[in-house]
């Protein structure tokens, strides 16, 4: 299957065609300007008349036929940012394009040109399947401890979190390293060091990214060509007070005037190394700092993963600079990592080779390989299109009346020491039941009698009411996902043996419980927000927006809504909801 891959930037367009794993065509339009651009085809550079991305993409069909490339079956697009919603590649349709468009504030420098390429290519090849592959998706497996900044809740709620980038490259080289070691990636702890103009490190634990050095933006982490990497955010205040700089000025300088460029006067590591060899102290210092920062992340990620099996170097610097690889690895003997200097000096990377360059007896393998983001995008496109299409199916609706999940201390406070709840009616979710006991909720305005208790016990008491109930109680219950209870209001629980004032009062956000098998068949992804139609054809037919999908093994697929939502749709008795629009098949 021939896949055409685009990687669009504001001033360039790279493209390649892959026939399965074999690259059959490669070209790049560079430096768009009023008088045209540089066009590189098969390594030969010539001037070309295209002045922008639109003209370049329009020229691709002629370029392909000029080079004798025919039979394109699909198009793959690199997208920098997929937010939290795109956990893998996504087949492009109008709804997906709109979702990507909405993510522009997260990647204002990168996503717009890439999305423009998507739109142009969909106009040009309306009949070909087209797929977006996101730099961020691979890192969406990072645990909250790796993605969370310790900043005010309002900032986090606005979307401030760590994402990580270069995901396509990290995933490709981790898979390639595992293949070179002859072991499944699911058995290995790998640190991938992508050192190009942009640079990032990634901890790939048993095949999943668990941390990565780039953060909310591609600024955090390693020293890069023109980007600073880690900087104390206190610098913003200091620079404003001392130099009178405003935020856009500081941000622009951190992206474009920092890194090797700032330290050594060139963003190009070859220049920096040449200057250092000629005795330039600034260049020498830049190299030392670059290597030190990279080594620090290596040590950190070995600790984060509780051990290390392989380090893989890639990107222009990682692939080509033996001295930088040596400097980064120097002193890592305590981790069981040593280099073989001869092997390090001239690894042969032709034909996607991934040679090992560790010293004899090194417990950690060290691998060098060319990154191949376009190859990986083509691979992801083939994998996605090979999957059976997602088939939406009706989702049973479960209407939750007001209920309480109790902690063990709460049971004792309400029912007496040593008391155990009596499981009554089983719920559809395996292992869950309604207790025979009931309790009373009391707020400043009123009481709700005979409130159901759901088992089993939880670590923390959670009280779920409808918005209408919250008015009856006189407490403003916030809309929350289950388990997100910090800062929730208090209400009084009254049982036969005593009462308890507990926080944890919420209006539960609607959600779909499902298992990995059903999720895959329906094209649903954990954490995705989908739309569902209720009571189709009835006078109160309703589309629910922002329904959270929660995938966990062993759960029964059903939609959970509360009584207000059910009443709004006029639901009486058993019913089903229908997914609106097509979802994407998932891994
Ligand atoms: P990008 O991130 O733009 O794809 P690359 O992966 O091509 O960039 O990496 C570019 C960097 O690789 C530049 O700093 C360049 O100097 C460096 N580089 C390329 N070849 C060598 C080499 N032989 N020795 C040292 N650095 C090199």
Automatic annotation (TrEMBL):
<feature type="binding site">
    <location>
        <begin position="268"/>
        <end position="270"/>
    </location>
    <ligand>
        <name>ATP</name>
    </ligand>
</feature>
<keyword id="KW-0479">Metal-binding</keyword>
<keyword id="KW-0067">ATP-binding</keyword>
<feature type="binding site">
    <location>
        <position position="373"/>
    </location>
    <ligand>
        <name>Mg(2+)</name>
    </ligand>
</feature>
<dbReference type="GO" id="GO:0051144">
    <property type="term" value="P:1,2-propanediol catabolic process"/>
</dbReference>
<protein>
    <recommendedName>
        <fullName>Acetate kinase</fullName>
        <ecNumber>2.7.2.1</ecNumber>
    </recommendedName>
</protein>
<keyword id="KW-0547">Nucleotide-binding</keyword>
<keyword id="KW-0418">Kinase</keyword>
<keyword id="KW-0808">Transferase</keyword>
<feature type="site" description="Transition state stabilizer">
    <location>
        <position position="166"/>
    </location>
</feature>
<comment type="subunit">
    <text>Homodimer.</text>
</comment>
<comment type="function">
    <text>Catalyzes the formation of acetyl phosphate from acetate and ATP. Can also catalyze the reverse reaction.</text>
</comment>
<feature type="binding site">
    <location>
        <position position="78"/>
    </location>
    <ligand>
        <name>substrate</name>
    </ligand>
</feature>
<dbReference type="GO" id="GO:0006083">
    <property type="term" value="P:acetate metabolic process"/>
</dbReference>
<feature type="binding site">
    <location>
        <position position="14"/>
    </location>
    <ligand>
        <name>ATP</name>
    </ligand>
</feature>
<comment type="similarity">
    <text>Belongs to the acetokinase family.</text>
</comment>
<dbReference type="GO" id="GO:0005524">
    <property type="term" value="F:ATP binding"/>
</dbReference>
<dbReference type="InterPro" id="IPR043129">
    <property type="entry name" value="ATPase_NBD"/>
</dbReference>
<dbReference type="GO" id="GO:0016747">
    <property type="term" value="F:acyltransferase activity, transferring groups other than amino-acyl groups"/>
</dbReference>
<dbReference type="InterPro" id="IPR000890">
    <property type="entry name" value="Aliphatic_acid_kin_short-chain"/>
</dbReference>
<dbReference type="GO" id="GO:0008776">
    <property type="term" value="F:acetate kinase activity"/>
</dbReference>
<keyword id="KW-0963">Cytoplasm</keyword>
<feature type="binding site">
    <location>
        <position position="7"/>
    </location>
    <ligand>
        <name>Mg(2+)</name>
    </ligand>
</feature>
<dbReference type="Pfam" id="PF06130">
    <property type="entry name" value="PTAC"/>
</dbReference>
<dbReference type="InterPro" id="IPR023865">
    <property type="entry name" value="Aliphatic_acid_kinase_CS"/>
</dbReference>
<feature type="binding site">
    <location>
        <begin position="316"/>
        <end position="320"/>
    </location>
    <ligand>
        <name>ATP</name>
    </ligand>
</feature>
<dbReference type="GO" id="GO:0006085">
    <property type="term" value="P:acetyl-CoA biosynthetic process"/>
</dbReference>
<dbReference type="GO" id="GO:0000287">
    <property type="term" value="F:magnesium ion binding"/>
</dbReference>
<dbReference type="Pfam" id="PF00871">
    <property type="entry name" value="Acetate_kinase"/>
</dbReference>
<dbReference type="GO" id="GO:0005737">
    <property type="term" value="C:cytoplasm"/>
</dbReference>
<dbReference type="InterPro" id="IPR008300">
    <property type="entry name" value="PTAC"/>
</dbReference>
<feature type="site" description="Transition state stabilizer">
    <location>
        <position position="227"/>
    </location>
</feature>
<feature type="binding site">
    <location>
        <begin position="194"/>
        <end position="198"/>
    </location>
    <ligand>
        <name>ATP</name>
    </ligand>
</feature>
<keyword id="KW-0460">Magnesium</keyword>
<dbReference type="InterPro" id="IPR004372">
    <property type="entry name" value="Ac/propionate_kinase"/>
</dbReference>
<comment type="pathway">
    <text>Metabolic intermediate biosynthesis; acetyl-CoA biosynthesis; acetyl-CoA from acetate: step 1/2.</text>
</comment>
<feature type="active site" description="Proton donor/acceptor">
    <location>
        <position position="135"/>
    </location>
</feature>
């Amino acid at each position: 299957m021939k896949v055409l891959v685009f990687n669009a930037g504001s001033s360039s367009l790279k493209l390649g065609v892959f026939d399965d794993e074999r690259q059959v065509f490669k070209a790049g339009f560079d430096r768009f300007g009023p008088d045209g651009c540089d066009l590189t085809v098969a390594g030969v550079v010539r001037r070309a008349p295209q002045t922008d991305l639109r003209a370049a993409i329009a020229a691709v069909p002629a370029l392909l036929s000029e080079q004798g490339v025919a039979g394109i079956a699909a198009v793959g697009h690199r997208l920098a940012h997929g937010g939290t919603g795109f956990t893998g590649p996504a087949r492009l349709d109008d709804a997906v394009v709109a979702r990507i468009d909405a993510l522009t504030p997260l990647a204002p420098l990168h996503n717009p040109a890439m999305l423009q390429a998507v739109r142009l290519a969909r106009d040009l090849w309306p009949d070909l399947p087209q797929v977006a592959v996101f730099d961020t998706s691979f890192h969406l497996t990072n645990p909250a401890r790796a993605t969370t900044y310790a900043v005010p809740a309002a900032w986090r709620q606005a979307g401030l979190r760590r994402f990580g980038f270069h995901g396509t490259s990290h995933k490709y080289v981790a898979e390639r390293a595992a293949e070179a070691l002859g072991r499944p990636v699911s058995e290995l702890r790998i640190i991938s060091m992508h050192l190009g103009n942009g640079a990032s490190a990634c901890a790939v634990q048993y095949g999943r990214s668990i941390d990565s050095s780039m953060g909310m933006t591609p600024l955090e982490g390693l020293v890069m060509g023109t980007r600073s990497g880690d900087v104390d955010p206190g610098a913003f205040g200091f620079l404003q007070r001392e130099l009178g700089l405003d935020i856009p000025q500081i941000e622009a300088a951190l992206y474009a005037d920092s890194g090797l460029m700032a330290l050594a006067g060139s963003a190009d590591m070859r220049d920096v190394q040449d200057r250092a060899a000629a005795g330039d102290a600034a260049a020498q210092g830049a190299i030392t700092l670059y290597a030190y920062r990279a080594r620090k992340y290596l040590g950190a990620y070995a600790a984060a993963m509780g051990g290390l099996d392989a380090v893989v170097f890639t990107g222009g610097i990682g692939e080509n600079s033996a001295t930088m690889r040596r400097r980064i690895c120097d002193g890592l003997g305590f981790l069981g990592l040593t280099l073989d200097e001869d092997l390090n000096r001239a690894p042969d990377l032709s034909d996607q080779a991934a040679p090992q360059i560790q010293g004899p007896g090194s417990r950690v393998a060290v691998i060098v390989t060319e990154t191949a983001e376009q190859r990986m995008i083509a691979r992801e496109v083939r994998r996605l299109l090979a999957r059976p299409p997602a088939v939406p199916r009706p989702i049973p609706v479960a209407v939750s009346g007001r209920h309480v999940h109790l902690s063990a201390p709460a049971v004792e406070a309400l029912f007496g020491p040593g008391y155990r709840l009596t499981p009554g009616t089983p719920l559809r979710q395996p292992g869950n039941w309604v207790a025979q006991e009931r309790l009373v909720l009391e707020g400043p305005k009123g009481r709700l009698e005979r409130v159901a208790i759901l088992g089993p016990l939880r670590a923390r008491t959670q009280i779920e009411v409808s918005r209408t109930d919250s008015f009856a109680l006189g407490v403003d219950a916030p809309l929350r996902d289950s388990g997100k209870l910090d800062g929730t209001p208090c209400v009084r629980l009254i049982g036969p043996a005593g009462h308890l004032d507990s926080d944890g009062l919420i209006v539960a956000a609607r959600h779909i419980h499902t298992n990995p098998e059903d999720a895959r068949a329906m094209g649903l992804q954990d954490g995705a927000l989908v739309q569902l139609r209720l009571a189709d054809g009835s006078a109160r037919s309703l589309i629910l927006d922002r329904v959270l999908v929660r995938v966990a093994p062993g759960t029964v697929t059903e939609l959970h809504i509360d009584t207000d939502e059910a009443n709004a749709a006029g639901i009486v008795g058993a019913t089903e909801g229908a997914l609106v629009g097509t979802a994407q098949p998932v891994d």
